[in-house]
Amino acid sequence: MSDPILSLRDVWVEYGDKIVLQKVSLDIAPGSFVSIVGPSGAGKSTFLRLIIGQEAPTRGHILLDGAPLAPEPGPERGVVFQRYSVFPHLTAIDNVAFGLDCAGSMFLGRLYGRRRKAALEEAGHMLEKVGLAHSRDVYPAQLSGGMQQRLAIAQALVRKPRILLLDEPFGALDPGIRLDMHGLIDELWREHGLTILMVTHDIKEAFKLGDRVLAFDKRRHDPHAPHRFGSSAVYDFPLTGKSRRPPAEILALASREPAAA
Amino acid sequence: MRRLVNIRPGPGSRVFLGAAPLALAALAYLVASAARHAENPSDKLLPPLSAMWAAWRRMAMEVDPVTGAIPLVADTLASLARLGLGLGISTGATLVLGLVLGLLPIVRASLGPLVAAIAVIPPIAILPVLFIALGLGETSKVALIVLGITPFMVRDLASQVSAIPEEQRVKAQTLGASTWQIALRLALPQAMPKLIKGLRLSLGPAWVFLIAAEAIASDVGLGYRIFLVRRYLAMDVILPYVAWISLLAVMMDLTLAWISRRFFPWDHKKGAE
């Protein structure tokens, strides 16, 4: 195995005396597609927030390419949320070009002239890749939910992030659209050699898309003080082409009520 | 029988339903005015349309020999200058303060309570302070408008800016945006239509403060004129002036609404979310 792109070393997250994540240690290999599942309240979202940089671990270290992770979001980690991650005031093409604008123009935040033309061309290619070439000049409010997520993916990829983080990206979509999106993300992953971390509620989706599935849950549970034990990755399945069916213990985990109840 | 809450007027009946109360009010006025004049031909309280038209001609089309100007024109220009200056200063201050308060937690922690404290002061109550500190000239009138509407506008805009979903702010950062770039490319454009909305809501109060200031200490202006002729019970001047002020207010509101639709079309598009 090559050097991990992302490593967590003994990471804890605590809010006051409530332990959310405890002793999480993981290595993520470059080019892997890691699905993250678990019951509600098991710290999946906290885990993702840690890696985005919206939160810092209470204890432990997170390394990106061997260097400590900056405790705030940055361009080396792209993200697609379930909703609201495109900018409503920009047209599709400008949404995608936003990252290029920020990289190229510190003070104006916007490119002009030849450089703008080049940025628009690059953004246009990105839109084409996600199948939105015909919608380049419309505002997000005029796009369907699935198209907005396509746009969010194009927008995230334009800065060529080291890791792409997906936070239940298809959770709000209709089943048919969701299938299309699975096809798209799978294709982008293979074509660009992306490293993807995806949090999802949908176990089938997790096993279908990922080449590794992490299941978060509490290792121990104290019924009198449920907050005193945090979650960690209790199952870690590397998937080969053959074993794409979720094992029974994972299905049981997903159907369980939230841990705190 | 359908429930009342489910009965919606069609386009035609909507116009009729909207116009009917206005027409009734106008009719009631004309009837009452005619009745009073039948009893007392020199009644001043409810002047007939002819008297209001005569007063309007006198105010709007004839030069006042004392000042050498047409009163309505001079009053309108003076009032609009004060109002425009006040609204301009308020809008500028709101844009800057609203953005930093809405975006930067540090500023919100330090300036938020101050703005909240200023916002609860009834502006008219400090009008004497303004007159004492700034004199009776234009400055105190503009200052009253600014102090009267800015705190509300700032708090409104700050809450709108901080209500921009966190997902967007994080997304912008993952695209490499700095604080400055987030302010310029994310918060500012999204704040503009909200700012215009806040400004439209503030037009009413702004007119109130303008007229109050003009009524107390001024020698020209729409509010000044109304309160001046009040001494002579000159309802034939007051009522057309009030109608004129209302017309100006409506036009300003419609202009702002047009600007918002014209320059921020994305804020007016409703589609599949």
Written overview of the protein:
The complex is a heterodimer of chains A (about 260) and B (about 270). Chain A is α/β, with parallel strands linked by helices. Chain A folds into two domains: about 1-75 and about 160-260, P-loop containing nucleotide triphosphate hydrolases (Rossmann fold), CATH 3.40.50; about 90-160, no CATH class. Helices cover about 35% and strands about 25% of the residues of chain A. In chain A, the strands form two sheets. Chain A has a six-stranded mixed β-sheet with strand order 6-7-8-3-9-10, with helices on both faces. In chain A, strands 2-1-4-5 form a four-stranded antiparallel β-sheet, with helices on one face. In chain A, helix 2 (about 90-105) packs across helix 3, helix 2 packs parallel to helix 4 (about 145-155) and helix 3 (about 115-130) crosses helix 4. The model of chain A has no long low-confidence stretch (mean pLDDT about 85). Chain B folds into two domains: about 10-45, no CATH class; about 60-265, MetI-like fold. Helices cover about 75% and strands about 0% of the residues of chain B. Chain B is built from ten helices and no strands. Chain B has helices at about 10-40, 50-60, 70-105, 105-120, 125-135, 140-160, 165-175, 180-215, 220-230, 235-265. In chain B, helix 5 (about 125-135) packs across helix 6 (about 140-160) and helix 9 (about 220-230) runs antiparallel to helix 10 (about 235-265). The longest helix of chain B is centred in the C-terminal third of the chain and has 38 residues, at about 180-215. The radius of gyration of chain B is 24 Å and the shape is globular. The two termini of chain B are about 35 Å apart. The interface of A and B includes residues 106 and 108 of A.
